[in-house]
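User: I'm curious whether this sequence folds into something compact or stays loose and floppy. Could you predict its structure so I can see for myself?
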Amino acid sequence: MKKFLLGLLIFIGLVILGIWLYSLHQFRDRHPGYSVDIQLKSSQNEILAGFAKVDISPKNFETWIDANGDSRYNPEDGDSFEDANGNGVFDAVWLAGFHNSRPAQGILDPLWARAMVLDGGDVKIALCVIDMIGFGNDEVIATRKLIAETNPWLDYVIIASTHVHSSPDLLGQWGPSDYKRGVNPAYLNQVQVGIRDAVDEASKSLRPAVFRFAEENEKLKPLVGDTRAPLVFDASLKLMQVMDAISGETLGTLMNWGNHPETLWSDNIQISSDFPDPWRNMVESGISVGDSVLLEGVGGVAIFLNGAVGGLMTTHPDMSVVDPYSGDSFEKQSPEKMRAQGRALAKITLETLRDTIWKPESKLNISLRAKSIDLKMDNQLFHLAAFIGLFDRGFTSWKHIRSEVSAWSIGSATFVHVPGELYPEILHGGIESPKGADFGIDPVEIPAIQTQIPGRFKFLGGLSNDMIGYIVPKSQWDVTPPYTYDYTNRPYGEINSLGPETAPKIHAAVLKILSELGVQK
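Assistant: Here's the prediction. I'll summarize afterward.
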């Protein structure tokens, strides 16, 4: 009996030791010692700019057809991880967003890595936006190291995601089941190489440039909805058109707007970049019907930079989208609705750019401030996902992960970059302390970030250099009943958030780097 008990104790001890060692491995820092702390200001007046785009759509992936000829993968119908002929494991590309078990069944339109490189002499930065739901900070750092092999002269690289919900899973949580990671390592590598190649091509195409900044604050409001009170919209469109200083041709156009690219919605099973695809194409090449050109494009490479989409900002299925040329109205989610939305966005963009009130700016300086931050992960589901391997996320210390905020200014414009889905009330103001909220406190994230951003044109790039989920105002945090605003269910944002301290930490960090940017408000 004593031997049995001793053996049992040894076995239990070994199990505990194994779990402890496994935890150390899973929660290890993927980039030990890495930190960003950059403060630069250029003294060179002439800015060189380059743009490029690289197709990062998956190649030669396997589509699902079950034994009954059904292209929708559904474990409840008996569909297994084997292919329909029992010839091994079904090697799918799992679409991110909405729910798991959603294998891609084809490509509706391409996914892109679209890059801009700016050389201001003392400050050299790259911005690359990818058509993905998100890209974690560990993957951003790994990609920066890859870029540094061919472009070591760059001071700072920003990698942002459009947050499209019809792209492959690069975070892990949308695989074939709740407990199986959805990231294909080979495809992740393809995306990272695509980002590097886009930055390489943009670097090789640098030209002396002039800049035009523009904005439209009203016309895009019918194209986005806020699904959580308080109803605070980030519906403004901010534009930066970069032109060759010698020829006058457009090198690239950056379009900044806050909306989830999920107009195709949850029934879609095709890879797509959603409304950014027709929007960018038409800004570049114009709007045509048949052989008739309705509105000339500006050329160059168009880049969509998403904004403050927390809340959540989306074009949901009961919102109608009207084609601005045919007059057709689309409500049910479909490629036609998505394309009509892109056409409406392109029309407003091109008309805004044609307005002569937006004057070119030249002989500009670039200021840059970027800083790594540690964020506390209070979400127990996120902890479990990291432990079982759904998330491949490194920890800098117990319950803390590395993330990042940054800001840079050029001429009359300033860009602020945050690592997730910022609630618009943190940006614009309007945070409330509703009855039923968990903490019963006054708003914490004040003043509004927008009031502290210098310059006339204020850009906000969400999902930049990380994807941490929703950034919810602490005074609105709500996980226990009774729920705020008479909701019957727990609000969605908190389910996909690190925790209630995330918004105060990011808000404070952003205000600090803005105060250190060295640009007058």
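Summary: The chain has a mean pLDDT of 93. The chain is about 25% helix and 25% strand.
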